[in-house]
């Protein structure tokens, strides 16, 4: 029997795969329309304020998603990547850069993302570390608008002690967690996918049904997937992209934002260039 090469325009077998591909493309395009619109929306991010403690945070209304993880995991860089802004959040080679709870509005003050100080930073004096951890804990326990966490782990050192504590604690509080395995550019494709699979399996073993993805702020891997998750959790819809009456909210001027940024810098505490990462075990 003559076997079709699969290239003939008239053959049924040649048409079949083409139909399947076009169907898949249609489904993908629905997903990516939401993801790319959400990504555009996230680009509206503006610095709102920094707070050293829960009482001083912005009003606890609307929806908030916080970026959490060990110091140096890439939280501030991920916020800059997802919002397509170079210096919205302060990223640094020196661990412990983010020392306050930093709020960013997304087009209106009722939908926010939050950059949290990293945990596991050894070089901070013990007394200060205890104060920070208490404040972080207060925020995580009492913040009503907090929908959940984007939990970042360096793909080369996932699931360290505090990460597991954070995951279990979030589960017990019924907060969602979306895990980012960050700095995926540091590994080749094979090892990166292997790491992803291994962490997925570990989460499954712990009976933690959280979503997870690869992410790189450097080469922008995973932006759309993250934008989709954040949009969903922050109540972003295509029909009513903000969900709020924008006219009723006064906009901050560029000067206000600059002033606030300067205040934040002034308030940031002792930086020691000799600091090393505390490897939590
Ligand atoms: N190669 C690579 N480096 C990254 C990536 N993301 C962050 N980094 C680097 O990792 C370091 C720490 O990044 P930050 O974004 O400041 O980390 P952080 O989690 O906010 O740290 P803290 O504020 O200390 O909690 C910086 O030197 C970044 O340039 C990435 O995707 N790829
Ligand atoms: Mg930071």
From TrEMBL:
Bias (Low complexity): 266-281
Region (Disordered): 259-281
Domain EngB-type G, chain residue ranges per copy: 61-236
InterPro entries: G_ENGB_dom, GTP-bd, GTP-bd_ribosome_bio_YsxC, P-loop_NTPase
GO biological process entries: division septum assembly
Ranges in a coiled coil: none
Keyword Aminoacyl-tRNA synthetase in record: no
UniProt keywords, alphabetically: Cell cycle, Cell division, GTP-binding, Magnesium, Metal-binding, Nucleotide-binding, Septation
Keyword Nucleus on entry: no
Name of one Pfam family that matches: MMR_HSR1
Lineage: superkingdom: Bacteria
Gene Ontology CC: one annotated term: cytosol
Annotated GO MF terms: GTP binding; metal ion binding
Cofactor(s) needed: Mg(2+)
Record family assignment: Belongs to the TRAFAC class TrmE-Era-EngA-EngB-Septin-like GTPase superfamily. EngB GTPase family.
Role played: Necessary for normal cell division and for the maintenance of normal septation.
PANTHER family membership: ENGB-TYPE G DOMAIN-CONTAINING PROTEIN, MSS1/TRME-RELATED GTP-BINDING PROTEIN
HAMAP family: GTPase_EngB
Protein name according to UniProt: Probable GTP-binding protein EngB
Organism: Acinetobacter defluvii
Source species taxonomy: Bacteria, Pseudomonadati, Pseudomonadota, Gammaproteobacteria, Moraxellales
Gene designation: engB
């Amino acid at each position: 029997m003559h076997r079709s090469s699969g290239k003939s325009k008239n053959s049924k077998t040649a048409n079949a795969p083409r139909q399947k591909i076009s169907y898949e493309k249609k489904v993908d395009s629905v997903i990516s329309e939401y993801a790319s619109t959400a990504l555009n929306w996230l680009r509206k991010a503006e610095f709102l304020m920094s707070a050293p403690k829960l009482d001083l945070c912005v009003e606890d209304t609307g929806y908030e998603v916080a970026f959490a993880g060990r110091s140096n995991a890439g939280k501030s860089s991920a916020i800059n990547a997802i919002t397509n802004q170079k210096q919205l959040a302060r990223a640094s080679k020196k661990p412990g850069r983010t020392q306050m709870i930093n709020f960013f509005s997304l087009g209106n003050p009722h939908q926010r993302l939050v950059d949290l100080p990293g945990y596991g930073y050894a070089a901070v004096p013990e007394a200060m570390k205890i104060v920070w951890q208490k404040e972080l804990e207060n925020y995580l326990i009492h913040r009503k608008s907090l929908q959940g966490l984007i939990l970042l782990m360096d793909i080369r050192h996932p699931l360290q002690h505090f990460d597991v504590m954070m995951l279990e604690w979030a589960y017990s509080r019924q907060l969602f967690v979306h895990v980012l395995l960050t700095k995926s550019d540091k590994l080749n494709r094979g090892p990166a996918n292997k790491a992803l699979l291994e962490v997925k399996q570990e989460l499954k073993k712990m009976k933690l049904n959280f979503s997870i993805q690869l992410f790189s702020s450097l080469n922008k891997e995973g932006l759309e997937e993250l934008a989709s998750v954040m949009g969903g959790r922050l109540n972003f819809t295509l029909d009513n992209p903000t969900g709020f009456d924008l006219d009723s909210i006064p906009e901050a001027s560029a000067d206000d934002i600059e002033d606030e940024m300067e205040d934040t810098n002034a308030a940031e505490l002792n930086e020691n260039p000799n600091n090393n990462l505390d490897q939590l075990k």
